[in-house]
Predict the structure.
Amino acid sequence: MTRQVWTRRQMLLRGSLAFGGLILSGCDRLNQAPTFRHVLDSTEEGLTRRAQRLFMAPRQALASEFTEKDISPVFRANGNTMPDTEDYQRVLADNFASWALQIDGLVAQPQRLSLKALRALPSRTQITRHDCVEGWSAIGKWTGVPLSSVLNLARLRPETRYAVLHCADRFGRDVYYESIDLIDAYHPQTILAYELNGKALAVQNGAPLRLRVERQLGYKQAKYIMRIEAVADMHHIHGGKGGFWEDNGYEWYAGI
Ligand SMILES: Nc1nc2c(c(=O)[nH]1)N[C@H]1C(S)=C(S)[C@@H](COP(=O)(O)O)O[C@H]1N2
Ligand SMILES: [Mo]
């Protein structure tokens, strides 16, 4: 019985080697044919290539995008929903006309960008799912400017490793802040959003500007952004862990 099984396996092995040999011998000519390439893609080689993409570059992978009909009827608000700082109350009073995003730190050209200036830059719209660690999700349509565009305007110095997002709100005496590395900062779905579901961002959802970093959990999606700072490390910022929740024990990389 055992002998017979081995024989079968050897036969199969020989068969696949012979098939491999056939591919190799006709390789150059056959590779030109699109239909043959298509067949290869659905075989082991194609699978291996796809698996490599999955396991070797998961940080660059795209988050799922949804359709208009998937949008949640209400996009719940969470965490702070009305910053109580003087700075925020001042810009809220004139509907953010006097608000400007400051970009500084390790940059060659610090920026101050009004909402009008940000809206004048090429935008991206995406319908994505927000997942909060507290156990709820919501699908929303976000429009904003790719973070990469504004970082390029400011011209990052070569030492830069992280973008720190400073927010207008606090929990007690601790200000809210977040940070991401340059892989996420330059990810095509990482945007500074000024619209939710086709309307100017409401205060409860982070007006005038909030981060969407779609491969990570809810607490990374910094609302009420006032300033973006380019840094080489984060030890000197607040609790040193790269974010308000991180300083309180949450993971810095909150991948989903
Ligand atoms: N500035 C700031 N950003 C924040 C928070 C916050 O309290 N302050 N809460 C975070 C958490 S835990 C979540 S789930 C989302 C909630 O975003 P939403 O209010 O638009 O639902 O914002 C994140 N960003
Ligand atoms: Mo959250």
